[in-house]
Amino acid sequence: MNAPSTEIGRTMRPAEAAPAIEVRNLVKAFYDVSGDRITLAATDVNFTVKRGEFVCIVGPSGCGKTTVLRILASLEQALSGEVRINSATPPAMVFQEASVLPWLTVAQNVAFPLSLKGVPREQQRTRVSELLALTGLTEFADARPHQLSGGMKQRVSVARALVDDRDILLMDEPFGALDEQTRLTLQQELLGIWERTGKTVVFITHSVDEALTLADRVLVMSPRPGSIVADLAVPFERPRDVVELRRDKRFWDLTYEVWSLLAASPEH
Amino acid sequence: MANIHPSLSAEDIERLKAPARRENVYRILSYFSPLLLLLLWEIASQAGVIDRRFFPPPSAIAGTAWKMIVSLELFDHMWATLQRVWIGYAIGAVPGVLLGLILGLSSSARRVLGPIFAALYPVPKIAILPLILLVFGVGDASKYVVIAIGVFFLMFYNTLGGVMQIPQIYLDVARNAGATKSQTFRRIALPSALPSIFTGLKLAAGSSFIIISAAEFLGARSGVGFFIWASWQTFAVSRMFVGIVVISAMGYLTILALEALERRVVPWAKH
Description:
- The complex is a heterodimer of chains A (268) and B (271).
- Chain A has 268 residues and is α/β, with parallel strands linked by helices.
- Helix content of chain A is 35%, strand content 23%.
- Chain A has helices at residues 6-11, 65-72, 106-116, 121-134, 150-162, 180-197, 208-214, 249-264; strands at 21-32, 37-49, 54-58, 80-85, 92-94, 168-172, 200-205, 217-221, 228-233.
- In chain A, helix 3 packs across helix 4 (121-134), helix 3 (106-116) runs parallel beside helix 5 (150-162) and helix 4 crosses helix 5.
- Chain B is flat, with a radius of gyration of 25 Å.
- The model of chain B has no long low-confidence stretch (mean pLDDT 91).
- The interface between A and B is medium-sized, with 25 and 24 residues.
């Protein structure tokens, strides 16, 4: 376990006007000892995310988008460049795979961040039941994770990330492993939650469709070493209906645009 | 039930249920197959196919056992053995689990201290029994120590293996939720490693009874191992077999108890 990045720690400050997240000239590389090989995961990544904005990052698999998100979450450190998180609270993360702790019940999983902080039990219970209601998990409060479907597990992850009410939500392909139908349902629910809570969201996905459905802005990443090759505004009005959206011609125009960007990015 | 499936004929339903029924037959047979071995032994011994002096028929052994139960003479030995096993087990298991957790979580501790344990592990526990008797005397302390050493390594390596297999994502979750080091230790590492810890506890229980038997052969005036040895010295073969069965049963029941505990404590793991 490494200590959280001091660089991020130092620049953490609540500033009303400043963007929630600023990333400048970020470079991340990995060194493989056995092969004596250096792999560039991301080069010269630049972007900002405004307070309350929903931003999606799309890119081919292995382009370093997850790495960028992990750096924002202080789970990894950048090699160089600058990352500013302008928030009083560290970002909360919703992970890719099943990150629900199997030895805890659904309610205990959701309460996990609160119990680490020593929040009084009564307060935890109240807050957890709010979150369970918000994510439609109330009747599964005492279930064990192995009794849940993939969609339910990701609901638990979302509820856990929201429970201590941090300003920034980082989501790493949270719906990637789900079937299409469950995914649409969860996307709709996430939009509802986001509209109610006003969080700043950075959402990683490899699905163009998902990015356009959810985001205010879509950042397109090139293949490895990844960098941001386009920053597209998504014009659809809110609140959005994930199904109705597909009747909008602009949706398909944007889909085409993103796909041509992804296809045109040079392979390294 | 058949009326719930109007589209299925009686034969279809019969065919569907057949494998489960066969499964039941095998389960019942599996209970009785060990008894079949005892029956063969009985017949062979009675008929003189195998030497009665070395392999008295199970019925004769059961008779001896019954006499010993009535006279209560075996219970003191069982109690002496159990006490040694449990105390030695606890002395070995607690540091084994703690060190396993620490070395599992800290790669620097693992790299520095790991080779020490790796070098000591292959030493046969029984081989150092004379040394332990020399240092700790012929009393119970030497029995605790030899069991503790055996248990320690099994618990240490099983816990270490369990911790090293913790999915990285659980550690990431803890970190993102703001867990301190000690919270990660107690709330993530320990529960993640519990299934492996239980595997270690069961293995260690089995090997504790092996070690205590040998230890009681050599330096003890009580215990089931001593009883087996004393029976050998007086050529009381039936009594020797009773001792063997009793110590096996003690090990077996301990493992059953640990399995029951495991189902309660680790309800999320597959059993």
